């Protein structure tokens, strides 16, 4: 009887250990991070003051971008997604060039354009507020594909000093970079 009791105890231990191992692997799988389907960024001027925000979301096989100004001077400003997720003041050149995975020219009115990172102008009223929403077709935030936004060095949203003319390569004659936000 002692042998059968000891065997039963060993069998129960093996069963419980096997179950625990299976449950642990399920927990690990559930904890694996999934690719982001939404990113946001605070847009700062070179002094660090918050001028606005950007939200980027996956929408089917497209990427939807919303940019909002909350404290800018009245006027029209060029806005673009840039290919590097760095915003070092004072000039934000660290954000690199426009996101352009299809390697075309700049601007919706350019016969050789447009970059995936080309966005509408940001129109700001006298109250310092303005916004736009724009959908970039055939693009993904993360994962796989030829028009992938996030790579190893990230991406940023940049606002320029002047409006974009939507045709002049490479940046629509939109002037200096006055605000930048890293997409996270």
Which key terms come to mind for this protein?
single chain; 184 residues; alpha+beta; 3-stranded antiparallel β-sheet; 1 helix; 9 strands; 16% helix; 29% strand; globular
Helical residue percent?
Answer: 10-25%
Based on CA atoms alone, the radius of gyration comes out at: 25 Å
Q: What is the arithmetic mean of pLDDT?
A: 86
Strands, count:
9
Strand content: 25-35%
Task: Kindly report how far apart the N and C termini lie.
Answer: 64 Å
Could you characterize what this model shows?
- The chain has one helix at residues 2-31; strands at 38-44, 50-59, 62-69, 75-77, 79-82, 122-124, 130-136, 156-160, 177-182.
- The protein is an alpha+beta fold and 184 residues long.
- The strands form 3 sheets. Strands 1-2-3-7 form a 4-stranded antiparallel beta sheet, with no helix packed on it.
- A hairpin with a 5-residue loop joins strand 1 (38-44) and strand 2 (50-59).
- The radius of gyration is 25 Å and the shape is globular.
- The N and C termini lie far apart (64 Å).
- The relative contact order is 0.22.
- Residues 3-33 have low confidence and may be disordered.
């Amino acid at each position: 009887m002692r042998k059968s009791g000891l065997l039963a105890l060993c069998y129960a231990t093996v069963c419980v250990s096997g179950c625990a191992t299976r449950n642990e692997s399920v927990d690990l799988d559930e904890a694996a991070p999934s690719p982001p389907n939404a990113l946001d960024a605070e847009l700062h001027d070179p002094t660090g003051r918050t001028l606005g925000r950007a939200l980027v979301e996956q929408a089917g096989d497209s990427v939807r971008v919303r940019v909002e100004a909350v404290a800018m001077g009245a006027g029209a400003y060029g806005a673009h997604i840039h290919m590097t997720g760095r915003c070092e003041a004072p000039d934000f050149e660290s954000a690199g060039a426009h996101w352009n995975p299809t390697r075309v020219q700049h601007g919706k009115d350019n016969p050789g354009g447009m970059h995936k990172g080309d966005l509408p102008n940001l129109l700001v009223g006298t109250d310092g507020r303005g916004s736009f929403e724009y959908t970039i077709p055939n693009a993904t935030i993360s994962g796989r594909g030829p028009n992938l936004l996030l790579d190893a060095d990230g991406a940023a949203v940049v606002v320029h000093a002047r409006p974009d003319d939507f045709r002049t390569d490479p940046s629509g004659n939109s002037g200096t970079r006055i605000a930048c936000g890293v997409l996270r």
